[in-house]
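Replying to the earlier thread about multi-chain prediction with a worked example.

Input:
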Amino acid sequence: MVRVDGKANGNSLVQVRDLDKKYQRGSEEIHVLQGLNLDVGAGEFVAFMGPSGSGKTTLLNLLGGLDLPTSGSIKVAGDEITHMSANKLTAWRARHVGFIFQMYNLIPVLTAFQNVELPLLLTRLSKAERRQHVETALAVVGLSDRMKHYPRQLSGGQEQRVAIARAIVADATFLLADEPTGDLDRKSAGEIMDLLERLVHEHAKTLLMVTHDPRAAERAHVVLHLDKGVLVEGGAGGGGEA
Amino acid sequence: MRFFRLIWANLLRKKIRTTLTIGSFMVALFLYGLLVAIRAAFGGNSDVAGVDRLNVINKTSLIMPLPFSYRDRLANMPGISGVTFASWFGGVYQDEKNFFPQFAVDADTWLKVYSEFVVPEAEKKAFLADRQGCLVGRKLAKRFGFKVGDRIPLRGTIWPGTWEFNVRGIYDGNRPEVDTTPLLFRNDYLEERRSFSKGMVGWYVVKLANPDDAVKITKAIDDAFANSPYETLTQTEKAFAASFAKQMGNIEFLVLVIGSVVFFTLLLVAGNTMAIAVRERTPELAVLKTVGFTDVGVLGLVMAETLIIAGQGGALGLLLAKFFTLGGDPTGGFLGNFYLGWGSLGLGLALALAVGIVSGILPAVSAMRLKVVDALRRV
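Result:
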């Protein structure tokens, strides 16, 4: 279930109400998001599209607790995150959110294994347990044989798969992907989208993705367009129904 | 420990830069070690100074003598358990460059007051039985190959003529920092042969029954000899050593200035390096925060890197300095007690870590304050 009218019942995994975000650039005030409402149920795959500067990434950052709204509320799995302290928000993020970036953002001096292990270093898992989790995550993304490789030894598609493994290794409540195929060729982009689809369908992950690529967007259950700070339903992608 | 791999990987990211930064700490702390050893050689080593001893010198100047008659008056003062005296001889062994200190001492009392000098009983007896006998320190004996039974001729510079001494013993220190470079000979031999200053001694050393009485006894001694032709200045052994060193110039100040400049430069070098390291890793630090590292956690990671660099470089430099000083006086006699104690090594390591903290704190705080959203935009 995905709705943008703010009239869904209270069972949504992600519930956004009257979200406003303004930036001050010099003397100019930029109203990026205006009274935005959004409800996303568990297991949904939502794509956000829109022109550059429409606020897609800002929305993703707000949903992931990386930024704070000017007003409005964001509830994820019952947690109201807009009033959390910085430390609480960090802990919440570690527990609930898996981020996937356009530029992969792997740590170049760490191996694929070590990059994926990063979020687990903050948990109480033992070394053996961490190893087991990392191996599982790398197996899911099909990189069991690249564990000891450094990012520079991997292709772009493989790097993004490591980044996806890092996002899922701590079993996040939902995944946020910002242009996950933006830096990849068509073939690799297709493979990454296959993988993301698999995470949604086979592993019941909830995925919210920003993209400019219509081919990527059509894999989503729902495509939402962001225009002038307001979300508009753009219909179902090829991956399911709205 | 679970973050060590991450910290270590970051340190190895730019191997040359890390090595050079560690190297700058190493050089600075090596220099610190040498400066401390030089300061110790000039008498600034407070570890060696006896807390239960006072030195009594002529109030006018250290080079002005005091009458021999003061010995008994000092010995009879309450709170004083022993008195001895010494005079600077200033002889030359073969050549001017073979400098080492020689003191004419009161043979009967010197070793009782200076219990840190260890002499085998038989050698002590031989020294006391021979008017021309002398004791040489272990370092001095090693330097010139002196052995018990050797005869050492010295050319007098204060009291002219050739003075010959029989080596009757070789003394050691009961601690490594005790100076074993002087030659000690009997004052009665000097008294017998010298043509002037008869009945005078260079300075007195008094041993206190209770070190807590030092202030009281210092005053009592100087009061006792006030308004006499030979007024006294009584001071602790540490102050005496410092005033002795000041004869050569203000070594303490020189060491302090050089040390401060070195550490300040190190601060700038290390601070700049860490600032660059943090700046070029901004997106990665943002990713760490994104996956759940707290602001304080990121600060801790950056500080840990700085402290590892400072600790490694500092420890290496100090060890190098320690090994260097173990080789003894590098000047061939000018820096007799060239010694770097473990206390000074510990202080050096603490200084290195303090420089590490100060140089790393600004970059670490900027990493801590990094806003994830802003940093990710820079990717």
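Helices of chain A lie at 56-63, 86-96, 112-117, 127-140, 156-168, 186-203, 214-217.

Feel free to reuse this layout for your own posts.
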